[in-house]
Amino acid sequence: MSEALLYFIQQLINGLTIGSAYALIAIGYTMVYGIIGMINFAHGEIYMIGAYTALIAITGLATLGVTWLPLVLLVALVCAMIVSSSMGWAVERVAYRPVRGRHRLIPLISAIGMSIFLQNYVHLAQGSRNIGFPSLIEGSFRFGSPENFQVSLSFIQITIFITTLICMTALSVFISRSRTGRACRAVSQDLGMASLLGIDTNRIISATFVIGAALAAVAGLLLGMYYGSIDPLFGFIAGLKAFTAAVLGGIGSIPGAMLGGLILGVAESMTSGYLSGEYKDVISFSLLILILLFKPTGLLGKPEVEKI
Question: Which regions span the lipid bilayer (predicted)?
Fold first, then answer.
């Protein structure tokens, strides 16, 4: 293979890695919007708290002398998912349920306020500096001639791909096969009718926030290890990108969130590789604007049908 092709493959791998994590976070945005038609702008901070929780768990296990990698990863993941899920449940109870049914601007302001509160809480509790995140999964496969450019596929990238695939598959099966998943689809179709049919809509909405927060925690652990550091603004930027991915793919559509995340990740990687990292946000949001101009519902979104 030519060096140019190898370089392209490397950027594609990098983009799919970041895009997979964006897709995990975007699921939270798209599920909440699909159920109650609102945007959870505190979702990025929940992802950030998941990353901090995972780091605290890893540090605690290291202090106790626990070094077996599968156990460390499992405990960190479970702790992050529990704390983030609890936080997602609390955000729904505190910031959304009291204002549900009012003008859409009120829940939006409430969510932004919760986002700022969580940012500052972590800022006060953990400090504003970058904190190193241990790269627990090291090593890589290399392809190509050592004399020329080599394509690197690291073990952490493989882990991100596999974990994302497992999470997406499990979520798809849960939504399509489980009783709670069918209730989620019913509530997204018609909240009032679902309530009349005996579905506990408050429980389903809370479950949606919890599921989205758990997936965000998975992404927090994975991207923490991938980037090697976290800070209180770690969730704001990633949350904004994931929201962009959800809108790009069609907010309210779970496959759209997956597709939007991958497209956004590849666009950023290609821009960084062929132009400059300074332009990656410009290209990403320009792509979003173009999609919204020519297909306002997103790539896989469906136009809303007004119920009479």
Answer: 20-39, 46-65, 71-91, 103-122, 155-175, 204-227
For the record, the structure tokens of 177 come out as 């096969």
Give me the sign of the Cα torsion angle 210, 91, 248, 9.
Answer: negative
Report residue 116 as tokens.
């700022």
Residue 132 parent element (H or E): strand 131-132
Phi, psi dihedral angles at 143 (to 5 degrees) = -125, 140
Rounded CA-CA distance 295/267 in Å is 18
Structure tokens belonging to residue 60: 């605690």
Separation CA 15–CA 173 (nearest Å)? 26
DSSP state, residue 271: H
Q: Hey, how many other C-beta atoms are within 10 angstroms of the C-beta on 64?
A: 8
Burial of residue 294, with CB atoms counted within 10 A of its CB: 0-12 exposed, 13-18 middle, 19 or more buried: exposed
Return per-residue pLDDT of the chain as tens, 308 residues. Answer: 678 888 899 999 999 999 999 999 998 888 888 887 788 888 999 999 999 999 999 999 999 998 889 999 999 999 999 999 999 999 999 888 888 878 778 888 888 899 999 999 999 988 888 899 998 888 888 887 777 778 889 999 999 999 999 998 898 888 888 888 889 888 888 888 888 888 888 899 999 999 999 999 999 999 999 999 999 888 888 888 888 888 888 887 888 888 999 999 999 999 988 888 888 888 888 888 888 888 888 888 776 655 54
CA distance 200 to 179: 12
